[in-house]
Amino acid sequence: MSDPFDPALDPLRSVRGLDGVAALGGLYVLTAVTVPVVPLVAGVGYLVEVLDAVARGDDHPGVFENVGRLARLTVGGTVISALYGGVPAVILAMTLYGASGLPGDAAQGTITGLAITLGSTASLFLAMAIAYALPAAWGLYAHSGRLRDALALGRLGPITRAPAYFVWTVTGWTVLIGGLAIGDALSVFVVGFFVAGYATVVTVGCWGRGLARTDAAPGG
């Protein structure tokens, strides 16, 4: 019986080989821990490129062959991530700011607590929706090179409603959460960073596989 996850893993094995994927991903996470922000931003272009390669069915993606494209994907992917992630963050900040300005008596305290609960819950669900749509946004941008495509609801809608996209996107996020949890547990050892890095690359591969199997997506 064939492994249902094998199609997502096969293209990743060609990105400098399976050991190379683990090494590059692990080095990326290790550097991100040592020098925050800068390597995280730089790694976005690499992840977007891998996603696009898997979505196109490219078994031998030359991730580092076009440095200019990698730099452009880094900038664009970072901007898209910031725009998407900024929405729930702003809602949560506005909720907390508004609640802090309410009077401190018992009745108002109840209202404040309710407002914070509703605002944080709305932010959580919105963050989940944005996390679900982010792979599609990355894929659209990587395919066309236009930031506006990553924000076009008319193009995002058909992709995110596809069953294949749902399965592989949720699978990818599950792999990432599990990999980061294991990596954190093993962070006292160097191998923990490599586990987290490898999980990150496999996650992007799952996202790319979902796009490849979605007719409405570029390369689908």
SSE blueprint and pairings:
Elements: H1 6-13, H2 17-34, H3 38-55, H4 67-100, H5 106-144, H6 153-160, H7 163-185, H8 190-212
Question: Can you characterise this structure?
Answer:
The chain is mainly α and 220 residues long. The chain has one domain (6-82, 135-212). 78% of the residues lie in helices and 0% in strands. It is built from eight helices and no strands. It has helices at residues 6-13, 17-34, 38-55, 67-100, 106-144, 153-160, 163-185, 190-212. α2 crosses α8 and α3 packs across α5. The longest helix has 39 residues, at 106-144. The two termini are 25 Å apart. The model is unreliable at 1-19 (pLDDT under 50). Keywords: Membrane, Transmembrane, Transmembrane helix. InterPro entries: DUF4013 (IPR025098).
Order of helical and strand elements: HHHHHHHH
What's the helix count?
A: 8
**How many discrete domains?**
1
Largest sheet: none
* Mean pLDDT, all residues: 77
**Which value, in Å, is the CA radius of gyration?**
19 Å
What would you call the shape?
Answer: globular
- Intertermini distance: 25 Å
Task: Name the structural class.
Answer: mainly alpha
